[in-house]
Specification:
single chain, 383 residues, alpha+beta, Trna Endonuclease, Chain: A, domain 1, 3 domains, nine-stranded mixed beta sheet, five-stranded antiparallel beta sheet, 11 helices, 17 strands, elongated
């Protein structure tokens, strides 16, 4: 941490040029517990304070890496240039919390938390709710070092990352890299596999970033279908030897009902649905079960009611064939399923005959060549 209290009760911030010898002669204390702090003046990390050994504090203070300390320092300096009146590491006594920086942006008070270490879900939730309780907007920023890109526009996103995404009003992930001095903004995140998601990506150098735009402006929707079709292409050419239980159930069901090998799953079960993030199951799993239900009705020339498709989705969730990423309302689940059906209508696979009642407009299956199937993937998902 950079903040401490001096012997005469004044707040002191360890930023900027300091004379090391003078610092070593002074005594500093924790603003929270009052315990004496050691001044760390090594070469690997920025100068900072740390509790002396065996001293407990009422706030759980995570060890701060050099990466974290430098990132926090840069964010604080940046917020000063934004005229956001930032306060470094203020102690909020009513909730016993100490955000990295507090700032006022567009008449809103924000608690900016720069998180580089793993944080338990209950701790993350407690901190988030604590700020909200005080009328403060929690603004989580992840350390860029915690992000792994797996392909163009695709990132490995675990439950740790989804905490940040779900806490964001725009379902986005904002990262910061002190080495590159840039923000990375992932938005319109669409899962392909459980921990592998497509995202629109925006890189913003900190000297060009506006705090109001970064924190209070919703990114424009966009998707590069070329990246999505490449992910489908990789799926079709990879061996599927180690499947989850839900994936294996779907594989067997497609073979039983459609005599379809797993690599030949129809294009219609790979639809990039924005609201599909509610599903933890891979995109082809949750859509695959719904596709089989709809095409079974279509083969019988029976109408396909949206309410029946939604009910079928709930049934598969109950049977653990489809897994949810987080608890959600029926409205949220309904939006995901509706976006999927709307896309199938847009592409002519389904046709709406009356409100939320559909018929199958194209025969299911029928493609037996991998090359033809890949071409269909490309033609279905065009920019």
């Amino acid at each position: 941490m950079f903040s401490a209290v001096t012997e005469d009760g004044q707040m002191f911030h360890l930023l900027g040029a300091q004379q090391n010898q003078k610092l070593k002669r002074r005594r500093f204390f924790c603003p929270v517990c009052g315990g004496e702090l050691a001044v760390k003046l090594g070469l690997q990390k920025a100068p900072h304070f740390a509790h002396k050994q065996n001293k407990s504090c009422s706030i759980d203070i995570e060890p701060e890496s050099a990466y974290h300390l430098e990132g926090k320092r840069q964010l604080y300096v940046w917020l000063k240039t934004q005229r956001a009146s930032p306060i470094l590491e203020p102690y909020i006594r009513t909730i016993n919390q100490r955000p990295d920086v507090m700032a006022r942006i567009k008449e809103h008070m924000l608690a900016v938390e720069y998180q580089c270490a793993t944080i338990a879900p209950d701790v993350f939730q407690k901190r988030t709710e604590g700020f909200k309780q005080e009328g403060i907007i929690p603004q989580w920023i992840m350390g860029y070092s915690r992000l792994k890109r797996t392909a163009s526009s695709f990132y490995q996103l675990s439950a740790f990352h989804w905490q940040f995404i779900n806490a964001s009003p725009y379902r986005e992930l904002i990262c910061y890299c002190p080495e590159r001095r840039s923000f990375l903004r992932l938005s319109h995140i669409i899962p392909f596999y459980t921990n592998h998601s497509y995202s629109s990506v925006q890189t913003i150098p900190i000297h060009r970033a506006g705090a109001g735009d970064l924190f209070f402006t919703e990114p424009k929707p966009s998707i590069q279908y070329s990246g999505w079709t490449k992910a489908i292409h990789r799926f079709r050419h990879k061996p599927h030897r180690f499947n989850s239980k839900e994936t294996n159930r779907l594989r067997l069901l497609f073979y039983e009902k459609r005599q379809t090998p797993f690599s030949f799953l129809p294009t219609e079960v790979f639809v990039p649905v924005r609201k599909g993030a509610v599903f933890k199951s891979p995109v082809f799993v949750w859509q695959g079960f719904l596709y089989l239900f709809m095409t079974d009705l279509g083969d019988k020339r029976a109408p396909i009611h949206f309410s029946a498709v939604l009910q079928q989705c709930k049934l598969h969730i109950h049977k653990k064939n489809i897994a949810l990423r987080f608890e959600c309302s029926e409205e949220c689940l309904s939006e995901g399923v509706k976006q999927y059906i709307d896309f199938l209508c847009k592409k002519g696979f389904l046709r709406e005959t009356q409100k939320e009642v559909y018929v199958l407009n194209q025969p299911a299956g029928g493609i037996h060549s991998m090359q033809d199937l890949i071409e269909r993937d490309r033609s279905c998902f065009v920019e």
